[in-house]
């Protein structure tokens, strides 16, 4: 049975109330500060009175038993982990896990109620091109005196929504607005000559609409004309036509203190000093006008209505959250100026009341192609020998076939080109003929719930169906985080074949070693598609199967290296366990690079990710940690030597015997005096016979016996790195594999277990 909530049976709104007539239901004092109120009942509660009724801490809550939950007051909004509702004010909070429960959910003890209401959606975060920070899914409810608005359609929020909560840079969207937000806009009223596509802006360009910087974020772009729009500025459309300017004007809200817009008529700043204001703006001409300077009639008459219509700042006739013009019957913006009848509820756009209708519909280009100013090629006879293509600044020339012995990859689908294609030889930009006529939007059987939109510049992502990791064009549903590369999106699949890859990828799903709350994504890479993609565990290039974690700064790990990444008891640091850690806490998201880093205890190279002690300042690369677990005793040197495998060596380290640079090759190293030796400079026998195995064993650069991703030494039975040198049995086809050190330590030689080879002596340690 549910316990009655401590504060009130309904959810309470939080707001600052000044000189309110109501009194607090607990202390009977007047409400004149921050207080809770019930939207259904006449119930009021001071913030301080609420705190007196709530216990300061909850222990072992069924939804979060690992830590205590502490009463905490959120000035900004938060999302309840149980009901996923937007909440504000008091919560029971775990700082370590960033876990919040509103007070109603915190004291709901029914076993049925101790499950998340929208399981699978809790704290779901997506990366969307509309905003440069992750957006979180939540169920909207009013939490204060005023409603939230969708930043795209400008209507009240309702139901499932996405947003970035907090005091600064707060945004929110209906989930339907994110789903339908176009990736390509054809004939935008601010730039009708070319389509606008989503691209990352790396230079310091400014938005042509609002004049704010775009550097480091995604925006709608026409690269030919260097025309750029913020995603949220692209939703703006001309809404007012006046006699004194040739183009329709657009309503702009101006942030407080912004002094970039001056009125063309009075030459005064359009922005207010301490509050948001507005102006009407012509983007093409970069002209701005105060509304009062435009000389719009304060009253007018229209043939569709018998009464006089008066010009007012804004009009909200009811709580339906949908507002229409009574002349054109199209939706209107509730914050815009309108003509209104004071005798009845007749409301009209200014341009409709003045008989100056403007077409304000955006073309999202769902049935268009990426070609400009030309018709499509005939399948048998091309109608043009060159084309203009929206995603490339130069004209592309038509070719019937590729040159002999020349391998070309299509920039769209990343598949090899053999026959008809278009090319810009100067930029080495190539497209299949069929890839120049791609639709902007497709429906796909693997994702029936939403259409997929074409994006031409989104970076590198794994395809949901095949798992290939490439940097070509993609069809995407951003809210569902569903992506298909071109070859999968445009290839029909049989109904009974829908999703074999999803099943495989679910089977391969693993948790991130750096944060158990994150899931790793499985993907494949091909050598000719991805450049400079390296494993964070071994620092070697990734080709083939691998995993990545998007939450941990896009951490990439070989499938074979993933088994190495777990907690470890290490002989060089025996007091505490070592855990996988990300050491560089300052990460530059804009330039996607580490701002600073620290050094590995073993190799002294910089280390971003590896093993670390959570209590001491001790760090090791993953490979270095495994290298230091096994020592080789070399009688010509007083200290132990340790094997360091193939690596992306950053230091100019030389071999102390042959004096040549190691240059990333495997080597043996002394931790105490710092000498290093090539493998070939240490007299390790190529062929060896031991009591551990019936056959002779051969020294091999590396050996991978299967695709399991987990490989072991058959002597010490500990995990081994599949990229390191080993002894293996050729006669058994690799059924017996051992570390070099383990093999040499088992040689059947009388005590003290030494052997002599070319004037060098090995001894078992």
TrEMBL record:
Pfam families attached to this UniProt entry: C1_2
Q: Which residues form the Phorbol-ester/DAG-type domain?
A: 9-57, 193-241
Q: Does the keyword Kinase apply?
A: no
PROSITE patterns, A to Z: ZF_DAG_PE_2
* Cross-referenced InterPro entries: C1-like_sf, DC1, PKC_DAG/PE, Znf_PHD, Znf_RING/FYVE/PHD
A single MF term (Gene Ontology): zinc ion binding
Keywords from the named record: Metal-binding, Repeat, Zinc, Zinc-finger
Q: Does the keyword ATP-binding apply?
A: no
Q: What top-level branch of life does the organism fall under?
A: Eukaryota
Which PANTHER family does the UniProt entry name for this protein? PHORBOL-ESTER/DAG-TYPE DOMAIN-CONTAINING PROTEIN, PHORBOL-ESTER_DAG-TYPE DOMAIN-CONTAINING PROTEIN
**Protein name in UniProt:** Cysteine/Histidine-rich C1 domain family protein, putative
Q: What organism does this protein naturally occur in?
A: Theobroma cacao (Cacao)
